[in-house]
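Course assignment 3, question 2. Fill in each field.
Student: A.L.
Task: Predict the tertiary structure for the chain below.
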Amino acid sequence: MVSESDRRRRRMLGFLAIATLSLAIYGSFLPMRYVPTSWAEATAAFKSLPWFHLGIYRRADWVANGLIILLPSFLMSAAIDWGRSTRWPLVLFSPLVVGVCCAVAVGIEYCQAFFPIRTQSLNDLVAGCVGALLGPILYLVLGRSFAKAVFQLRDAESSQKLRWTIVVFVFLNLAYAVMPLDLMLQPSDYVAKYRAGKIILLPTLNGLDSPDLLKVLFLSLVRGAILAAMLTVCCGARTAAWGTIAFALTNELLQIPVFTRFVSIWDVIAATAGVPVGIFGAQVLGRMKLLTRASFWIASGGLALALITAGTLGRSTGWVESAEAVQTAWEHFWDWPLAKYYFTSEFEAGSNVVLKLGLFAIVGFCFAVGVSKLAGIRRAIAIVWVAMAVVVTATFIEVMQVYLKPHIADASDVLLYLSGATVGWLAYQFVFGLETVGAERGWQNNGVAER
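Answer field:
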């Protein structure tokens, strides 16, 4: 007998599957430059789809085309299987899931004839069909275990939630390190990557003045500090130090066979430099019991907003001087949502979107923790103020990019920021929402493990 809660979750998964499939279809026709074409011409173009012999530089985009179909295929499988005692319904309906997703992949390639700015190819068609096939397979292998782990995280004790958070943090970072799976298969590929300067095995001062490199190193330091802080709380300082260093080394080693990724010993050094920062931060927070205070979390969310704003607008090289350029920027500000991402590679576009969602998810999470520790009218006021802070900051960032170069302002990015903050807020509610307002967390009593 399927419970009502399982039915609701099944409907939610179905909705997510439809939403992700719709987004894949929408993204496949950006930037929406339709050219009148007869059905006969479209059919002829589809019958003669070329097969491109993709070089190492194009493999990332090929993998991305498979992933955008794999996700809805996986979610469809989850919607069918959720709450059932047997897997037979999923086994029986898997061919239908694959068929629907393959039909979408075929339809996309066919209809791209009406949008000739898009490239039609058998490569994209095959990638989409492979993604459609892998969705049910991955769910059969991992789906139930993943769902079980997620709900164990929600129902676990506070100290266990922190350990689960560490596992998720490490997994997501390592998974991102190997994306977009454009693996090098020949020794010549490794030589090409090395000659392109994408493998730095020894620390040299060359290029350290590059703003982009400094930004990457700063993010590595922050990542190392966050992991070290979490490990310090639950496992002690020694484990935090060795665990963070091992994580940094593993993260770089995994990126060696991935052509798109840069491998640098400086990233390991930066992450290692974050270890004492994380350990010290965890010890201070533990002694002062700041993690139990609403003001700390709300201030952290506000600080994150300030850093995101400074990091985004700080890359500016000056003000736009031409009134015509400003007018043009405003006109393109309201282009089709996400249309500007078409002019980069699929991997760069996806990474950009994920980064924006992720940064604002951190903001939403911090604000959710802070608000959860308040009650009554103070809670209502805090919700209004943090919501206004997110909306105003998101809008300010994009509007300022109209007047600053070399930025590209995009109204749809405001929606990305707000979506990310919402995801962070809901993630906290899902994982920690069962705990009472203001309750002491297991890792906040004295703050740090003694081991």
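Instructor remarks: The first helix runs from residue 4 to 27. The beta strands are 199-200, 263-264, 318-319, 404-405.
Grade: pending
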